[in-house]
Amino acid sequence: MQTPSGHPVESTSAKRLVVLASGGGSNLAALLAAHDDAAYGARVVGLVTDRPAAGALDLARDAGVASAVVALKDFDDRAAWNDGVLEAITVFQPDYVILAGFMRILAPGVVRKFEGRMINTHPALLPSFPGAHPVRDTLAHGVKVTGCTVHLVDDGVDTGPIVAQTAVPVLDTDDEPTLTERIKVAERALLVETVGRLAREGLHVTGRKASIGH
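Structure for Phosphoribosylglycinamide formyltransferase, as requested:
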């Protein structure tokens, strides 16, 4: 595991965000674009990735945001890797943990440590089409409307309480790449809006129902 690096500038009143990402970091980029506005209410203070070559690392470096690489190959087993991820997240003292294209399933112990504060995005209207291939499944089922979901992370796969959703029409001409790209555009906007509202207004969860503000 690499040690955190970089020197983020932050507001003392802004909620602290730690982003977990495995790829290019398009959702991270969207959050970084929003967080310099003091009115947004949240600031990315750290990035944790499982891939040493993740493009998200370049985005974090350019923004002066600290980062940590926790690669599975560097640990004896999956349990030790999960401990490493937990340690890397905890160093940043986050108010919210944002899974933004993080392609590993975290152990229940990691999830419970941040219960009610760990947020994930999913490119479908949950509870429909959970799992690893939601866009492919959407097209295979011939649905006319899909979308994206921001939800809390729990011990299941895409089963946590839903915080926010937005719809995206499925066009007759769509294939997996075109529909994926349109969902990603909607997903970035929804994530930025939802995280900002969470930071400013707070989150209330009762059973399966999650609501922002009072």
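Residues 176-201 form the longest helix (26 residues).
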